[in-house]
Amino acid sequence: MHRYKVILFGGTSEGRELSEYLSALGIPSLICVATSYGEELIREVPGKLDVRTGRLDMEEMSRLFVREQPKFVVDATHPYASAVTQNIREACRIADISYRRLLRPAQAGAVPMEKLDTKEEAAAIDRADRMHADLVIHAADIGTAAKILTGTEGNILVTTGSKELKPLCAIPHYEERLFVRVLPVPEVLEACHASGIKGRHLIAMQGPFSEELNYALIREFGIRWLLTKESGRQGGFQEKINAARKADIRVLLIDRPVQESGYSLEEMKIQIGELAG
Questions:
Q1: InterPro entries attached here (predicted)?
Q2: Domain count, the chain
Q3: Do residues 17 and 141 both lie within one domain?
Q4: Closest C-alpha to 140, from 258, 251, 255
């Protein structure tokens, strides 16, 4: 007997909103989250939800889908979780289950943009020195961002998460320059300590954050560079950019992976509503 009409992946804010919607409609669903922290947030959703905690590889996903035979699988993972998205999509193909990707809209036009590739790093840094300090420099990935920051001076506020720390440790004197803002959960703090980020350089807080708080942190730690991702409205992206401009500092933005086709939050709710009849 198959219990679930929908299997939903994602500890994101959109994932939590869809979980609440599924619960309100009484649609049998399984919510899959990677961490205990994600589970805690889902457990705050009203109603009774079945939650599976822990990272699944592609084979584990496909076995789950074959066993449960849901009407469809919703991928509401973070826009930058490209590897997870690829695994979910492939597992759906193997299990012959319909795959639905929830897309978080980008905040286009929020900042002036200048494209950057690895060969242009030195020239981009020079231009940033000559132009207004809030110029947004784009990097394709965290490795490229680390190379760019190696050629700069000043403290760096890192808001890209603990998983992105390793490449940043190649920056000279990174223990002194990096101020890393991460989720306040034990495994994340342990990972930061193992990387040499500790004391006042480790800022453990749950977001999203207001412009005022971002600005206060920038001022408190003498930040000259803000390293971030385009996390959209739900991730407090505009508040970070506004604070950086107000503080007259530079922003290094890691580009989103190429966006595949998908559905908006409202479109996904309509499809879920159809299951409820």
A1: Precorrin-6x_reduct
A2: 2
A3: no
A4: 255
Q: Which CATH number is 194's domain given?
A: 3.40.50
Same domain as 232, residue 117: yes
pLDDT score recorded for residue 95? 96
Which comes out higher in pLDDT, residue 229 or 117? 229
Supply the angle between the helices 121-130 and 142-150 in degrees, to the nearest 10. Answer: 60
Neighbouring C-beta atoms of residue 34, cutoff 10 Å: 18
Q: In which order are the strands placed within the sheet that holds 29-33?
A: 50-53, 29-33, 6-9, 72-75, 98-101
Q: State which amino acid sits at residue 62.
A: S
Range of the structural domain that residue 97 is part of: 6-105+259-275
At 227, give phi and psi (nearest 5°). Answer: -100, 120
Task: Specify the amino acid at residue 191.
Answer: A
**259 pLDDT tier (thresholds 50, 70, 90):** low
pLDDT average, residue stretch 110-138: 50
